[in-house]
Amino acid sequence: MANYFIYTKKQRSSSMILVLNACVVFFLYLAAHKYLPDLTNDRNALSQLLNILNIAIWFVEAFILGLALWFWFENKEIRVCVTPTTLSYFDPTFGDVSWQVNISDITELKQITDTTQDYATNLIVLKNGEKKQLMYGSYRGFDRRAFFDALVLANPNIIVPEKVYGYKIQRPAWAKRFRKKFGLDK
Question: Considering the entire predicted model, what is its pTM?
Fold first, then answer.
């Protein structure tokens, strides 16, 4: 059976991002020790703050690096697949979220935004009123436009968010010239 859309990602790539985050946190810790003494004359408050940082940094680093190691060795695959008849979703990141629905049962794909936290929730709404959550917002390289196009190709009655289709990539003039010169425009 043909796939209209497929996205896969191994957890090992998330592990590398976590290691990078651990390095950034450690450099921020070192910067706090170097630059905070120059910003205040209250040595007592500074001493208390640095004592807390000296303890907290090791818990934070252990947590981030532990999570990175877990992702590295587990290395399960995140998978989103649209075929002519089904949409399947598997995300092993936290709790092995896995489900599959018939394309004909999908009525709408909603993107709900919490403006206070600038966070979007992506939901698949089924004919029976059930909602399934998609976590693709944090997937690097996930092409939402191609995903929505695949859903509409499989079932033209699915309502997809207008926001993605109205989105236009804007580039500075130098980037447009570069892309044109090297034949990168589609």
Answer: 0.66
